[in-house]
Amino acid sequence: MPRLASQSLALVLCLFSACDVAAQAIEPGKEGELASFVSPQAGARACFRRVYDQAHLKGHPKQAVTEMQFRIAYYIHDPDEFAPKGQRNYYFQLLAKLRDTKQAKPLSAMGECSPTADGKAIFCGVDCDGGGVKVKRNDAGKILVDLEAIGRLRMTADCGEDEDNAFELTSGTDDKRFLLSQVPDSECPAYDDW
């Protein structure tokens, strides 16, 4: 099956079955797997990163990503008539630097996260059909960012940048899953500073 067709099929299947977890407000007590990433407390956050060394990139010549960061934060909005105690959301930012580009700073994708239907991972998606990633946490303080599960992630050079200049990071031969390590809190900016 051609790559584009298989990615489109994967996205359609994800949207209507395995990933039936549209990002939305998270009710207290229903955080599921999200709580293993970040506790449901105002301002809580966690950051993960990996910079791929030359040896790794030489062994994976088709890998476009040379560096990846994943940030997740718990945020409580101000109370309103619909959420008297404040709507609660888990937000994410994924940053990536790519091989053979002259980008001054990493590409960025932002959106919301929800627990997956099976409860074993989280889905983090970009609004307006911008794709997303499935993320699993392991016991060693690392996470596995799975781009292949969804197939693509729309990224821009800066938050709020015109979508016409967006870049589609797609799951390729060597760009399927990324194992990232947690960084110290001192290297993890608060959500408002993303």
Kindly describe this structure.
This protein is mainly beta and 194 residues long. It has three helices and ten strands; from the N terminus they run H-H-E-H-E-E-E-E-E-E-E-E-E. The chain has helices at 3-18, 34-37, 54-59; strands at residues 45-51, 65-76, 88-98, 107-115, 122-125, 132-137, 142-146, 152-155, 167-170, 177-182. The strands form two sheets. An eight-stranded antiparallel β-barrel has the order 1-2-3-4-5-6-7-10. A two-stranded antiparallel sheet has the order 8-9. A hairpin with a 4-residue loop joins strand 6 (132-137) and strand 7 (142-146). The model is unreliable at 1-23 (pLDDT under 50).
SSE diagram, text form:
Elements: H1 3-18, H2 34-37, E1 45-51, H3 54-59, E2 65-76, E3 88-98, E4 107-115, E5 122-125, E6 132-137, E7 142-146, E8 152-155, E9 167-170, E10 177-182
Antiparallel strand pairs: 1-2, 1-10, 2-3, 3-4, 4-5, 5-6, 6-7, 7-10, 8-9
